[in-house]
Amino acid sequence: MNPSQIGQIHTLLQASTSSLDYEDHGGRRNNDSRSNFSNGEGSSEGHSYLDDELETLGRYGSVNTSVLDVTQHRSHSSSGMSEDKSSLLIERMRRRLRFFFMNPLEKWQTKRQFPYKLTIQLVKIFFVTMQLILFASYRYANVNYTNDNRITFSHLFLKDWDSSREITTYPPTSGPLAVYTKKEFFEYLNFALNAYTSVEEVSIGPYFYATPDGSMGSVQLCVDRYTTGVIFGFNESFTFDSQTEKACLEIPATALIAQRGTFKSEEYLKANNFTISFDSLLEVDLLFTLKTIRFRDLGPLKSPDCFLFDVAVEFNNRDHDGQTLVSLDTTPHRLICKGSTEFKNENKLERIGRSGVNYIVIGMCTLSLVLCCRAIYRAQLLKTETVAFFKKFFQQELTVNERLDFLNFWYVLIILNDILIIIGSALKEQIENKELTGDAWNICSLLLGIGNLLVWFGVLRYLGFFRTYNVLILTLKRATPNVLRFLLCALLIYAGFTFCGWLILGPYHMKFNSISTTSECLFALINGDDMFATFAGMSSKSALLWWFCRFYLYTFISLFIYVVLSLFIALIMDAYETIKLYYTEGFPRSALQEFIQGPENINANTSTYGSTTTAVHPSELPVGRRTSVAGVLDTIVETICGCSAPHSSTKTCSTIPVNGEDQPLLHA
Fold first, then answer.
1. Which pLDDT belongs to residue 102?
2. Residues 6+ apart with CB under 8 A from 91
3. Residues 425/431/434/439 CA torsion (nearest 10 deg)
4. Which three-class secondary structure state does DSSP give residue 464?
5. Region (Disordered): which ranges (predicted)?
6. 500 backbone dihedrals φ, ψ, rounded to 5°
7. What are the phi and psi torsion angles at 407 (to 5°)?
8. How many Cα atoms occupy the beta-carbon half-sphere of 104 within 13 Å?
9. Which residues of 375-484 form beta strands (DSSP E)?
10. Cα–Cα distance between 256 and 264 in angstroms, integer?
């Protein structure tokens, strides 16, 4: 466009604006702009009308451009703006998804977003592990102390107790402690009662009677028996009632003191009309209580404890096989000690230290729980937006696996271990304050142990950020479905061998006495453990069953070691080789992953979102991330100018200054 054409445009516009009112850039009527322009003065606020028209005519090419041409161009411009808006929406969604699926290190490198959850998990591991070490030492000392006291009571109150019974060996070196005659039964009963009367003088340990004044307490003798049970052996008849009853007789301390060391239980029972019928007898329990104080620490913190032990000497005759088993059991209860004032002050400081660790762990796990729940909630919101986005722009539904990508199972694992550790820490605090005892120790250890196990499992997530360590996780993930299907089939065969061995070999082999021991024996055989002992342990009373045992064991060992285990390892190796191949040739991508990667990984004229290939106009493809400098410049030009790249063969972009700013201008 030459200067003469611009002068003609100027004259025409002056004539056409004489009878019209125009609005300025802020939307207000501006008559002053026309007068200023006619006087040769440019408007100081916004674009003047003439400037707008000059820009419009400059865009459309010449003064001879018709109104229809202008209208059509504006229509195309509106369509182009709509396409640009769609492209921006697509790119915005891609960037959101790409950022969502980044790991904490990538988010830090991209936006300098501090990895709060990662930091909390690492610090939490330290405190949770420290808490577990303290509680494990404390619990081991407590359980070991109660077991040692049970052994001590066995030596004090059980006649003929031997130290060899204190160690669990396989196979057992001695049979069970039992009585076989009525005389032996009353001898064992008398021995326990007489030992109780002199326990404070005889025992090395500080054991005392559980009465407020320290005097000897009474003893209870409880008998559990059938309501009616009389056997007439001469004619193989009996009188029997399957209902059971429990009768207890209290033996006062005065009777024990009167015959200290020479108490005769049989005579005392007859004198009190309390008879024991061995035909209907199920169980006899001798019950009494003792207290003790331990100065030695029960863990890493020096804190003497006071205990009360409920002692029970049991005579078990439930099998009615002529053998009455004798055992001793104790139930410990922790008491509040009344120590010196100086120690109370020191104990208070130790309690504050223990409680401080518990509260720190509870606080960190609560914070971790809240952050992970928030992350899962936000991920579900993003999933909902993504589903609607794909349906609108690509007319495609996300698959189940693609939807599951928005559920981070590592966060679920963290939430689970946080809940377990919070509950376990609360129980630990009550146990250490001596508010709970008994089964609370075991429940607390289960909660803290499983929670700590899951915490350390969660560390695998952060090792997965590195390729070398991620192989293990990907291999397990790849192999899990096939392994589960394989184990289901193997379990059916294993169950058949288990039930068969229990039924046939149970009465003649100690390793097959019950369904649990049979399963344990077979599992040990799979791992090559104790094979010869299993073969040698079979009784030779029945030649048929002896030969069957050989055939049974040879078949099971050959099938599971040489076939089942080999196939199991092959499944794992196949998954490992597949992952290695993926690292070499690339991992398969879902439609969602293809979208996140961007159009640089997709054909310029096709869309490969999903399993099918759908043709897509180039203008509908989302603007992708350019890797080269030229690509970056092309993207900048297309975004700012709204036109084709400079290397286009039909159109080129240039700019003219309008109101001090460079604006794009198309040349035909």
1. 84
2. 622, 623, 624
3. 150
4. coil
5. 17-48
6. -65, -45
7. -100, 105
8. 14
9. none
10. 10
- Residue 530 has which token pair? 């104790």
Tens of pLDDT along 98-157? 888 887 878 888 888 788 888 888 899 999 999 999 888 888 888 888 899 999 999 999
- Residues whose CB falls within 8 Å of the CB of residue 209, separated by 6 or more in sequence, listed in order: 200, 215, 216, 217, 289, 290, 291
Beta-carbon contacts of residue 319 (< 8 Å; ≥ 6 apart):
none
Residue 135, Cβ density class (10 Å: 0-12 exposed, 13-18 middle, ≥19 buried): buried
Rounded to whole angstroms, how far apart are CA atoms 350 and 298?
Answer: 13
Query: Tell me, what amino acid is at 21?
Result: D
Residue 500: alpha-carbon gap to chain centroid? 37
Reported confidence tier of residue 582, pLDDT bands at 50, 70, 90: confident
627 within 8 A of 616, measured Cβ to Cβ? no
Residue 479's identity, in one-letter code, is A
Q: In the structure, how many helices (H) and strands (E) does the chain have?
A: 21, 11
Cβ atoms of 203 and 156 closer than 8 Å: yes
Mind giving me the DSSP string for 294-324?
E-S-SSSS---EEEEEEEEEEEE-TT-SS-E
Question: For tokens 């007319």, what's the residue?
Answer: 395
The reply to whether omega before 171 is within 30° of 0 (cis) is yes
User: If residue 652 lies in a helix (H) or strand (E), which one and from where to where?
Assistant: strand 652-658
Structure-token pair, residue 507: 């009465």
CA-to-CA distance for 12 and 169, rounded, in angstroms?
A: 114
Distant-in-sequence, close-in-space partners of 339: CB < 8 Å, separation ≥ 6:
304, 347
Tokens encoding 300: 């890493």
pLDDT tens-digit map of 224-260: 999 888 888 778 788 888 889 999 999 999 988 888 8
**Residue 667 main-chain phi, psi, to 5 deg:** -115, 140
Give residue 172's pLDDT. Answer: 74
Q: State residue 145 phi and psi, 5-degree precision.
A: -65, -45
pLDDT above 50: residue 463: yes
- Report the distance separating Cα 668 and Cα 666, nearest Å: 7
Q: Say if CB 444 and CB 427 are below 8 A apart.
A: yes
First to last CA, the chain: 12
Among residues 587, 588, 603, 612, the alpha carbon closest in space to that of 396 is found at: 612
Q: What burial letters (b/e) apply to 476-512, b meaning 16+ CB within 10 Å?
A: eebbeeeeeebeeebeeebeebbeebbebbbebbbbb
- Locate all alpha helices (DSSP H) within 158-280, ordered by sequence: 182-197, 199-202, 253-258, 265-271
